[in-house]
Design goal:
two-stranded antiparallel sheet, elongated, single chain, mainly alpha
């Protein structure tokens, strides 16, 4: 199945709920708004599964980074994924780039110091 919600649930290790989510028309953009009662109504009986879904759903509407698979033995924070025994880790980072209309053309016409002052 190629549905984004199915993929998301499968990454959490909870793919067994995919059909129930699809039957209730739960889409990726609605995940952050889900409540425990919603999940009970959908058929997620396990408290642990509901907590795992609600925690992951908080960031589901944003740009998607692959979620770590569920690991009941050693839980991992959703924004930190250990990589090596050496202590290295991977973190989710959000970056934003802004460009001013015509700024490149303006930069070619004025001295760098003047351009810096204009931008500031």
């Amino acid at each position: 199945m190629s549905d984004p919600v199915f993929k998301w649930l499968d990454q959490l290790g909870l793919g067994q709920y995919a059909q129930a989510f699809l039957d209730e028309d739960v889409t990726l953009d609605l995940l952050p708004e889900l409540t425990g009662d919603d999940l009970k109504e959908i058929g997620v009986a396990s408290i642990g599964h509901r907590r795992r879904i609600l925690t992951a759903a908080k960031t589901a509407g944003s740009v998607q980074a692959p979620l770590p698979p569920a690991n009941p033995v050693q839980p991992v924070a959703p924004d930190v994924v250990p990589l090596l025994a050496s202590g290295a880790e991977q973190r989710v980072v959000t970056a934003m780039f802004c460009d001013l209309v015509g700024s490149t053309q303006l930069a070619t016409r004025v001295d760098p110091e003047e351009y810096r002052d204009l931008i500031a």
